[in-house]
Amino acid sequence: MSLDQHTSFAAGEETDRAATSRILATLVQASPLAIVTFDPEGVVTMWNPAAERIFGWSEKEALGTRLPFVPAEKQEEFRTLLRRALRGEAFTEPELHRSGPTDPRSS
User: pLDDT value at position 30?
Assistant: First the structure.
């Protein structure tokens, strides 16, 4: 591959990445599902409009804070689960449902 071909290919890849980023951003913003990202410390880095609607905190209120829907008394448990997930560990914990906690292993 010549230098010109390589440069052209690289520029095309960059254009594809930019287009993909725009598409993903649009999907996140338009999603009817809450999409929230956070760093390894549990600090919110992205909060879409559905998260605002579902959880009640605005993006401005949520960004840069610990996940607002994790109560203070559950923060340590959350961080423990987060560490497990970041190590690649697969696990199923009791899930919350409006009728109360459920254990998916009992189904």
Answer: 97
CA distance 67 to 45: 10
Which conformational region is residue 42 in: left (phi greater than 0), alpha (psi within -120 to 50 degrees), or beta?
left
Confidence (pTM): 0.65
Q: How many residues does the chain have?
A: 107
pLDDT given at position 46 = 96
Amino acid 58: pLDDT: 95
Kind of pairing between the strands at 36-38 and 95-97: unpaired
Distance between CA atoms of residues 34 and 89, nearest Å = 24
- 27 pLDDT tier (thresholds 50, 70, 90): very high
b (16+ CB within 10 A) / e for 62-85: beeebbeeeeeeeeeebeeebeee
CA–CA separation, 72 and 74 (whole Å): 5
